[in-house]
Amino acid sequence: MLTASSLFFCLFVYDARTALFRDSDTGWHIRNGERILARRALPRTDSFSFSRSGQPWFAWEWGADILMGGVYRLSGLRGLTALFALAIAAGIWLCCRLHAAAGGDYFILALLAPLTVTTASLHWLARPHVLSWLFLLAALLYAERAPARFGARQLVLIAAGAALWANLHASFFLAPVIFLIYSAAHLARPLLWPLGRDSEWARARWFLWAALASLAGSLLNPYGWRLHAHVFSFLTDTELTSRISEFQSFDFQQPVALQIALALTLAVAGGTLALAQKKLAHALVIALFVFGGLRSGRVLPLVALAALPLANGAFTEALRGSRNLRRELQGALDRALAYSARLRAIDRKFSGAAFLAGASMVALVALASPAYSGSIAFPKKSFPVAAAAMVEKLPAQARILASDSFGGYLIYRFDGARKVYFDGRSDFYGAAFLKQYLVLMSARPGWRDIVASFRFTHALLPGDSPILAALEQAGWATLYKDDVATLLEAR
Fold first, then answer.
1. What pTM was estimated for this model as a whole?
2. Residue 341: CA atoms inside 13 Å, Cβ hemisphere, count?
3. What SS3 class is residue 140?
4. How much is the average pLDDT of 76-82?
5. Which helix (H) or strand (E) holds 458?
6. What is the 8-class DSSP label of residue 398?
7. How many Å apart are CA 43 and CA 325, to the nearest integer?
8. How far apart are CA 371 and CA 419, in angstroms?
9. Which residue in 115, 116, 108, 110 sits closest to 137, CA to CA?
10. How many angstroms separate the Cα of 154 from the Cα of each of 150, 207, 404?
11. Contact criterion met (CB below 8 Å) for 33 and 98
């Protein structure tokens, strides 16, 4: 039921037809996937920009790009809306399974559901990271349900999953990290508490093998170990990541701040209880994602999807073990837990697969209706959709200064034919370029030299951009203007 509800919420309340496309990076993912399919080869150098044209480029999400490009070929943005809405619903389904695997209570799951959806929706976008959530949750589910006896078959499956993950999204390194956490937890548990050393250390060895298998599987990508080096270099380059908005801490002045703060608080409380209950792996995983969520807003959805289910397990065990409450309250709690357990038993027998399939079909039929699909697009309030008609009339060799938030859309709108100055591939452009870009866009001293060095002929900028006012004062002529963007031409 929760999975179907999240699907309908995504499509019709969250308004997936435009909200999924509010990040322009979707644009270059689509076009890169189409080019890979057309040329049957991965790009090795950049062909989307004039500022770094021909420079080596790691298309590290090429698998997701192919999927997005292929779906777009078949059904356009409507197909991508269906793809990512279903992926989001699948992520919620896996999250519910993780609640159960961690020993969580059915009622507590229902209470946490609104926080889960609210927090995860911060990063509901038509981008590859949504697909990576499925692999992360699958890895945690496997760690929770790891069989008592292990064999080579399990290691092969882990390696295969890691290989697929590594070719879809750069977060593949989380697979060995999670298995190493479980290995370290089982290694340390008998040293901290009076537990059976042999059985704990046997599981520690198994999870260590699982970590090695996932690491080996991740090497099965077109770039080999160089992909790992590139991802590590990117994530540890604070000069770069400190200037990328989605790597910044969440702004707790936003309207949804209360829900986000509550999700983090519950996760911390669950992690503390888990440690007291000797669930060291749960405590460490929760700590990992809470710390990441406080440092970077893009990790907050993982707090909701991965940390809260483990916290539910800790809350449930604490409630079941409570015996010092007043008799009336204790009786009510015991009855609630028993009723919830019966609901969970029914849930195990009736998986809801038929209901979910039916609900998905209804949602997809509604999505295909002209009234809905006709309005699926990149949002006109965020991107230069109207201004693009004027941009199309510019000479082919025009060098347009545009913000990175416009770059991916322009790549999509002109099918990569009109080269851009900058887009969302921050790992490709690098820290030095980004610092120069920020100097230019804020019209700080030296901006004139940057404009001259790139030989810009035109500029397509948001109305509140400082460099827009500076260029107008410098004599650049206005060719087009609306509430979203202004197109200027150099004198």
1. 0.93
2. 10
3. helix
4. 94
5. strand 458-462
6. -
7. 64
8. 34
9. 116
10. 7, 11, 43
11. no
